[in-house]
Amino acid sequence: MSDGTKKASLTWTGPGLRLVGTIAGGPAVVVDSPKEGMGTHSGPSPMELVLLGLGGCTGMDVFSILTKKRQPVTGYEVRLEGERADSHPKKYTKIQIEYVVYGKGVDGKAVERAIELSETKYCSVHAMLEESVEITTSYKIVEEQPTPYEPGDAPE
Question: Which of 17, 44, 87, 125 could form a disulfide with 57 if both were Cys (CB 3.0 to 4.6 A apart)?
Fold first, then answer.
């Protein structure tokens, strides 16, 4: 098996549709459904995991590039919004990514270049999705400190 090969497994634990997924040698994640009567939404749904995967992939790229460019980043968020088709298989048709960079004196050109590099060179999730999903991006630079994140504050 090459270094690029990954193995994953999911085990039904219930109640409802709840599964616990693991990657060989890695941590576990709960996967569930928000559908009433079928799931308890105790973890992200598979489609929510797609959004999180894209946000995590590009988010790590952009943050890493900004750090290498010695940008004075004091806080950072990646916000995603996905629109799904009305009929099955209800795939994403559009995904909007907004990068919010906090810090005094962050260079907008550096942020733009970091996003471009993530989109065109580094983010494998973006590369997989871009052929079938319209992905748009935007960013904003906020000079003040971000409000500390509290568990449960995630946007709906």
Answer: 125
